[in-house]
Specification:
This is Putative methyltransferase YcgJ. Its EC number is 2.1.1.-. It is an enzyme of class 2 (transferase). GO terms for molecular function: S-adenosylmethionine-dependent methyltransferase activity. With 215 residues, the chain is α/β, with parallel strands linked by helices. About 3% of the residues have low confidence. Strand 6 and strand 7 form a beta hairpin. The protein has a single domain, classed as Rossmann fold (3-Layer(aba) Sandwich). It is built from 6 helices and 7 strands; from the N terminus they run H-E-E-H-E-E-H-E-H-H-H-E-E. The N and C termini lie close together (11 Å). Strands 3-2-1-4-5-7-6 form a 7-stranded mixed sheet. The chain is globular, with a radius of gyration of 16 Å. 33% of the residues lie in helices and 22% in strands. It binds S-adenosylmethionine (SAM).
């Protein structure tokens, strides 16, 4: 099992530029919420987040998921793109939320002490960052023992035929800033977690929902 009580040493990982997202905020906001919102809401509410829980969302973007968290939780969202965070901040101010904050931060080098959060979430981000394994390791590091990690993302299919078909789109999607060949099992190797569930909301969905408990 990996030791997680220290932050990665040496040269900080080069963050994903996020220029794609910076430039595309308006278009992104027009199409993405309809696709993603329902899935995020259903899976977050099934976690029954406790009163006073400290929640970290990594790659919070424009704050698409923020109103799915109960207002009895203390929610912090981080993202590399300040343009995305500006949208989230506008929404937080409009909704007069006092339980939600956002701040700029690299997912691959989270600026928190180990074991700081009861729940660490991330939606549609781990295949966008430069070093997904480092992001996952960081999410686990900052989660308290007994706390939960919820990741919703596209991962490479275990069905070789589907994997090949999706791989053929990989060149295009990489130019858009995200990869299709991320293997979930490789990301989770040796981390101090127990997988509680890993499912798709429907068989045709491209996205997997991973719920893990930090041990
Ligand atoms: C596809 S968007 C998903 C945003 C949001 N979670 C959602 O579901 O709408 C990916 C997000 O990852 C952010 N991102 C990319 N690289 C990052 C990094 N190294 N650290 C933090 N955020 C990053 C982008 O700025 C963008 O907001």
């Amino acid at each position: 099992m990996l030791k997680l009580d220290t932050k990665p040493e040496g040269t900080p990982p080069k963050p994903h530029e996020s220029r794609f997202y910076h430039n595309l905020v308006p278009a992104y906001q027009a199409v993405w919420p309809a696709v993603a919102r329902r899935r995020i809401f259903a899976n977050l509410s099934s976690l029954n987040i406790a009163a006073g829980a400290k929640v970290l969302e990594v790659g919070v973007g424009t704050g698409l998921a923020l109103d799915a968290y109960p207002d009895h939780a203390e929610v912090l969202g981080v993202d590399l793109s300040e343009a995305m965070l500006a949208e989230a901040e506008t929404m937080i101010a409009r909704k007069k939320w006092s339980h939600v904050r956002v701040r700029p931060m690299n997912a691959e080098q989270l600026e928190f002490e180990p074991e700081s959060f009861d729940l660490v979430t991330s939606f549609h981000t781990i295949s966008v960052v430069s070093r997904p394994d480092e992001m996952m390791r960081e999410m686990v590091r900052v989660c308290k023992p007994g706390g939960r990690i919820l990741v919703i993302n596209h991962f490479r299919s275990e069905n070789p035929l589907i994997a090949r078909v999706v791989d053929s789109a990989g060149g295009l999607t990489r130019r858009l800033g995200w990869r299709t060949d991320l293997q979930m099992n490789e990301l989770l190797n040796e981390l101090p977690i127990e997988i509680e569930s890993c499912h798709k909301d429907n068989p045709l969905s491209l996205f997997r929902v991973l719920v893990a408990k930090r041990v």
